[in-house]
Write a structure and sequence with these properties.
This protein is of the alpha/beta class. It is about 40% helix and about 15% strand. The chain has a nine-stranded mixed β-sheet with strand order 1-2-3-5-4-6-7-8-9, sandwiched between helices. Helix 3 (about 100-115) packs across helix 4 (about 130-140) and helix 7 packs antiparallel against helix 8 (about 210-220).
């Protein structure tokens, strides 16, 4: 496996999603964090790394990228070696035609961490990252110490809502069926990325995301047809993911799990989902937060994560890596 830093080598990340070009990063961000590419099997993955301490993998959801964690990363880097991942199909990572089931995505993440020298790590996953976190903990239990997940139901684990569900449920989940279409959705969304993805952010956030962040996500998807296609592939692979999750349910997770819900979105539902699969589940509900806790309520999100990831309360003193 080849690992390449942002500052050197022919494969150094140069797109809008690398640290040197991403907009609105916290002051001094680039002094701590570096973009790099790692070749893993059939795909080249992009990760942003920095900090010192035990390894911590951050995996964002649809339709976001590593950038979703930017407000938390400097503080987390005081105590952890942070690895914020663009999974296959996302941001500066490669966009192969297949491999978007959660078993493959989890294997990608494990291989990435191994290539970076991390045989064991903790993980935080949001949305699709929650799907992947469950798969990783179930398929690779010897690799992960603690798992925090946020704001998702898990297909094949969570009960499926009826086709004719309430308006509220339909407004929250209609994109699942739409995103699984074969090709038609690209035709309908292309040239209307502002409308489609902008609607997702506007309706699922209780506190609006900054305009520059929404613009960054939308422009990344609009500028590359492969990025738009790949954004739907996580959903087109759901038949495979559901079958995998039905098998995973046979063995319950034993590691500590933190389930985080936005008080204005899934709330306690995240914990209810994880208790279907795990024995040691702690729940945190963030008041006034919608679907994007790392961006809507970063201070509150950081508080619950640090309490869970560092249960002994130990922390490096101020002024360490990532301190601001």
């Amino acid at each position: 496996m080849m690992v390449t830093n942002a500052a050197s080598g022919p494969s150094a990340p140069e797109g809008r999603g690398c640290v040197s070009r991403a907009p609105g990063l916290p002051e001094g961000f680039a002094r701590t964090f570096t973009s790099r590419h790692v070749d893993v099997g059939d795909v080249r993955l992009h990760a942003v790394t920095g900090g010192e301490g035990p390894a911590l993998l951050l995996h964002a959801g649809w339709p976001q990228a590593w950038y979703a964690w930017r407000l938390l990363m400097p503080a987390l880097a005081r105590d952890f070696r942070v690895v914020a991942l663009d999974p296959r199909g996302v941001g500066e990572s490669g966009k192969p035609v297949d491999g978007y089931d959660t078993g493959t995505l989890a294997s990608d993440a494990v291989a990435l961490m191994a290539a970076l020298g991390h045989e064991r790590f903790s993980m935080v996953g949001h949305d699709v990252g929650m799907w992947v976190g469950y798969a990783l903990a179930a398929d690779h239990p010897g690799r992960i110490d603690r798992l925090a997940v946020a704001e998702a139901a898990i297909p094949g684990l969570s009960p499926s809502p009826p086709l004719h569900s309430s308006r509220e449920t339909n407004d929250r989940l209609w994109h699942f069926a739409f995103n699984r279409l074969s090709g038609l959705n690209e035709d309908l969304v292309r040239g209307r990325e502002d409308l489609f993805f902008g609607h997702q952010f506007a309706t699922k956030a209780a506190k609006p995301l900054p305009d520059h962040a929404v613009r960054h996500y939308v422009d990344t998807l609009a500028e590359d047809p492969a990025a738009l296609r790949s954004s739907f592939e996580f959903y087109r692979a759901l038949d495979t993911t559901v079958a995998q999750n039905e098998r995973r349910r046979a063995r319950r997770l034993e590691l500590p799990v933190l389930a985080i819900g936005g008080g204005e979105n899934l709330g306690e539902g995240v914990g209810a989902t994880m208790r279907l699969a795990a024995d040691d589940v702690e729940t945190a509900v963030i008041p006034g937060c919608g679907h994007y806790p790392a961006e809507e309520t970063p201070d509150e999100m950081l508080t619950v994560l640090r309490s869970f990831l560092m249960p002994d309360g130990l922390s490096r003193p101020p002024g360490g890596p990532g301190a601001r």
